[in-house]
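From the shared-data thread, chain only:
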Amino acid sequence: MTEPPSITRLLVNWSNGDRAALDELTPQVQQELHALARIYLSRGRRNQTLQPTALINEVYLRLIDQSQPIQWQCRSHFFAIAARLMRQVLVDYARAHRAVKRGGEAVAVTLDERVAPSLCQAPDLLDVDEALTRLEHWDERKGKIIELRYFGGMSREEIATACGLTTATVKRDLRLAEAWLRRDLRGES
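Structure, as tokens:
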């Protein structure tokens, strides 16, 4: 019996136009993406109607519907892109929900209890997205690290590998970025 191809090999094959590679890749990453979506959505508001499977399906649609094929580098690169797309889907969903409710309940999430522990209520997803965008303008690397950690569910070691950094640098950047976001979300410029 032969061992299934690695995720990286399937990603590279998919980048090179092999549609069968995507079919083989999907079941290999589905469980991990579903777990990430479930954890992330569990941080949202109680009456959340978006389900993990719907979030993942939308991410797949956006991955497939790229005008230029993504040149995948490795498994970490895939999950980094998937994390960015999950963030975009959730922000789009929150905006649409807010528009329907005319400023009503938007998706409320916390990045982590350490990021917003003293706030009376969890920050709105759109507020978190705007704060993360400001962080990315201030320090792009720290913004990417936060996104990979909280939207991508990556460990410090996986982030270090994906970004070409040391684990110590990732740990330090996470601590600084979390403090920056905490201040920003409290309105302390």
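DSSP finds eight helices and no strands in the chain.
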